[in-house]
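In this section we walk through a basic example: taking a raw amino acid sequence and producing a predicted 3D structure, encoded as discrete structure tokens. The instruction is simple. Fold the sequence below.
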Amino acid sequence: MRHIVPAAPDGGGHASASIDQLCINTIRTLSMDGVQKANSGHPGTAMALAPCAYALWRNVMNYDPANPLWPNRDRFVLSIGHASMLLYSLIYLAGVRDVRAGRVTDAPALTLGDLEQFRQLGSRTPGHPEYRHTTGVETTTGPLGQGCGNSVGMAMAEKWLAARYNRPGFDLFDYHIYTLCGDGDMMEGVASEAASVAGHLKLGNLTWIYDSNRISIEGSTDIAFTENVRRRFEGYGWHVLELMDANDTGDLERLLADAKAETTRPTLIIAHSIIGWGAPHKAGTAAAHGEPLGAEEIRETKKFYGWPEDRSFYVPDGVLAHFQSGLGARGAAASARWLALFAAYLQAHPDLGAEVTAIINGTLPVGWDRGIPTFDADAKGIASRASSGRVLNAVAQHYPWMIGGSADLSPSTKTHLTFDGAGDFQPPQWGGTYGGRNVHFGVREHAMGSICNGIALAGIRPFCSGFLIFSDYMKPPIRMSALMNLPVVYIFTHDSISVGEDGPTHQPIEQLAQLRATPGVTLIRPADANEVAEAWRVIIPMTDRPAVLVLSRQNLPTLDRGVYAPATGLAKGAYILAECGGKPDLILMATGSEVSLVVAAYEILKKEGIRVRVVSMPSWDLFEAQPEAYRNSVLPPDVTARVAVEQASGMGWAQYIGLTGEAVVMHGFGASAPAEALQEKFGFTVDAVLAAARRQIARA
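The resulting token sequence is shown next.
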């Protein structure tokens, strides 16, 4: 790629004083002042990209500031979340109305006072943009590349919504997704994965504007990043354009029109810019990236802009009115037309209209759970991945806007939707339709997670799947799901050393502990097919958090629920599966595949006259959410003889077994061998559980 950039200012003269230039310099100076007042932040990118952002928002985007929940609005993603003052300035100048409790209010989303509180405790202007925290922020960004992945998911969601709900004369969904990204995004693997997906899917409704300023924290990107980005994206199947000067708003608008006219390929606009444009000593240097410019440099920069040098957070007369006369007037007219169109759509297509209304409101379809099967007792049993596949298909068949897939593993994770009409989400050239329900993410776990977050942001319910060991590749998007309270369903199979011959590279050990430690994530590891069914009954109504469903490769006995407690106890996270009558001498507890192991030990101990309680603990976070009285009824504090069994790291079990209990867990990585041999080697046998139980009874 040619490294063509406009010349840096030499400090002489001043910028044009046209109303457009006043708006652009207002964005620049608000961003500079916010970072300076906070004594923390990233001013340079906002200064460089202010012209691009202004032209996009004021003159191009279809967005109604008075109705920021309008379903057909264009989406703006600031993947370079460190430049958050750029977005906050845009939200303020655009006059975006605030949303509280899901309703648009008459109050502004941000005031000038909010900009002055940048990065302060409790402010609406945190260091990186946060979805739901600040109206006008479409997704939480900051970890580089995540916003790029989200934007691909948003574009896929628009394609799916249009394919399912648009009808002749009723183009309900035709919005575009615009993303600002930078050199850091280009270096992150997740952005490359997501770009590859977008190119394959021919997402012509997606435009990335790449700020090629060639500066990162350590200095020039030439020290680490010299690839030809243009050719890379052309190889992905993208339409690639170049903006030679990020200050040339007219040229950018021409390129944006070109991008929107290209409907069969996503577009990358490579915008050559100078970080910190206008700063006489720091423009084009790493010093403009991640620290305040300093009072003297700001004064000189403002002088170059023709700005009052000693005024902070200054908004000249006419700027707000001019900015809002473009975006606001255009958006208000477009959203009013859409609302009228949707009212007519409800009359012409009431069933589809009811679905769209449910998606907008975040409600579930009536009868979504009516096909969930129950499973008869069976000693041979069924792998929980297989029983989950049956339940997933039953649920998705009655949940029309539930879509998802796997990272090239659906035959193993059992997540392929097989009912009539499910179809594949593919462009027609690849033999599918954009209305398909099965998404093929390819071997791209990281992008899969961030794409699902983007899909969820459109109100569609996504699921994705892989092996539990590969949740390591998905930690960032799972964390972002939790931060944004998005109801993505993560389905992870092959959950233990019982994977067998694939060996320790594929046998998860620490992953359960890591996922349980992530705030806002509900993890469920069901013990048998009926717990699987109950897990789905619990997960689907949770619309404010992600769920992780952890499933086995090997068969698990289906317990006789006439003998043992009903699987409905799963909803409370942990429940008494088998009781002894009276106060127990010992509590055996386990999750997932190990529950049947402790049940077998329980039956032997019961015959020996030992009072034993078995507790199934599929979800620790659901259990911790229960009242103390319930938790104490399941795990009485005065019963200290306890054994926990789980084919994973023992981290966390101490809170349930206490200082004197015993955990039969993994203390290292696994090995390559048949599952039965591994269970014997690592002590996951009935005899090993019995030995631990007898030690506990003797101690007590």
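Looking at the output, two observations stand out. The radius of gyration is 28 Å. The chain has three domains: 17-333, 376-555, 571-697. In the next section we compare this with other chains.
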